[in-house]
Amino acid sequence: MKKSFSILRVLVLITLISTVILSACSKSNDGNTSSSNNSDANATANQASAPEELKLKVVIPHFGGDPTGTVVEQQYEKEIEAYMGTKVSIEWTRIPWGEYREKTQIMLTSGDIPDVMLVLGNDNIVKYGEQGLFLDLNKYAENTPNYSTFVDATDNKEQYLMTDNDQLFAFYDGYSNPSDIEPSQYAAAYRLDVFEKNNIKVPTTQEEMYEAAKKLKALYPDSYPIGQSEQYMGYDGILNANHTSSGIYWNGTQYVYGPTEDAYKEGLMFLNKLYSEKLIDPAFWSDEIDQAKPKATSGKTFIYPQLWSGYVADFNANKEAGVTWTLAMTADNPTYGKAWKYGSDPKGKGLQNGYGIVISAKTKHPEQVVKLLDYQYSDKMIDLLMWGIEGKSYEVKDGQKQYLPALKSAPDFVDQLAKMGVSASMSTRPGIVFTPQERIAVYTSVPDVLFYHDGKAQLENYYIASNEYGGSESISPNDRAPKVMLSKDETDEVADTMTPIDTYVQESAVKFIKGEMGFDQWDNYLATIKKMGDLQAILDLQNSKVKK
């Protein structure tokens, strides 16, 4: 959920942390204006105006690992200087990811921003771009040959990436999936050792999940067999099996509102049954991983309807606990067919508009900054940042890149990637993030984990397993929704209408699950939603943006 801030809170926060962020901002955007005589085979027509030294202030998030001094970061710096034909000096400010939105929101509100920064939320990108805070990249199209390939590959690019005035304000979050697989990094999880010890079938349907939970509750009365690892994640897993959603989503034909559908009601009824029989944790809708992990490793939780697949490796790595968890495909509801995966990756190249790297409109050398950021979208730089350095982190075999076998087999494989500065580690990310993710590098960077299918659990790559066992029918239509963009006024209209409705829906969902609202009140619930705002107008707006 997006955070909102009162004026008072913003003022207090500005006072508290202005000393942290002002050093990252560039009121003067220092830079040398003299020209460079260096030439480069890839130089643009603007090379003659390049400074002898390009000085930039950059604000980006960090994810636990510092790329400074890593072999990949060092090579990155060499590559961009060779490409730019000039010395590049970057003053980095890296803010912890958990603090990033709050601190950068204050910077945006103040209007005092660095040369380059990552902005979260397309509403922010459009809002502050239209206020003149950011460069319009469409004015520098000759400087973006690499980025343009991602823009052109993005469905409905004119509406999804650009404003009504044909402005493009960000280098959006890119992906490149040069394969035919469309996997997910989310799955169900089961405490395999306990299931096997008690001869309980690993569920493939919701009814089997219910029966398994009843048996586990009888065997372990102090437990709540079903838990969740992130707020609403398990709840969404139940809804995915019912082919619905907790909000507005694309159903394959049009945008609809899940919480008004019968399939959504059925999901709440199933959860209410689990709750009334004490089969789900009372904290089911609020637990995060910090609360979930101790329960997963101490015999308090045995089932997760849906979680991030990487958590299973963490659970099993706890040698003191001595537990064995396995992943599996999300349990189906046969009424609706194959359960939808959560967040199935697309094939090919493209952009997502949830994040974007922006350039200050006040930067001294806009053409050069655009050129530098564009280079991060080149195949050469994507390979460097995502795979590392050939011979040190990966090799090419039969025309395909793969991590070095000795490195991949190491027990601390991902840690070794992080120490080298390979972005696929997800903790240490060199360059001006977010840089495009080459998905095969990501898929093959995770350790194999137990994945249960067809009556047995075996060590597998969870990305590849989710694709193989889920198939195309497990891809949610919403993961292939038409790309649309709303104007600032339209975004405000959606927020004004949907914020109170969504809040009411979330509160009501908990009440339905706990039995504080009976399902005989469902019609009153629907009527209340209708009275709270013109939901249909919002759906009509969304659908009107879909390219026919």
From TrEMBL:
<dbReference type="InterPro" id="IPR050490">
    <property type="entry name" value="Bact_solute-bd_prot1"/>
</dbReference>
<feature type="signal peptide">
    <location>
        <begin position="1"/>
        <end position="23"/>
    </location>
</feature>
<keyword id="KW-1003">Cell membrane</keyword>
<protein>
    <submittedName>
        <fullName>Putative aldouronate transport system substrate-binding protein</fullName>
    </submittedName>
</protein>
<dbReference type="Pfam" id="PF01547">
    <property type="entry name" value="SBP_bac_1"/>
</dbReference>
<keyword id="KW-0564">Palmitate</keyword>
<keyword id="KW-0472">Membrane</keyword>
<feature type="region of interest" description="Disordered">
    <location>
        <begin position="28"/>
        <end position="48"/>
    </location>
</feature>
<keyword id="KW-0449">Lipoprotein</keyword>
<dbReference type="InterPro" id="IPR006059">
    <property type="entry name" value="SBP"/>
</dbReference>
<keyword id="KW-0732">Signal</keyword>
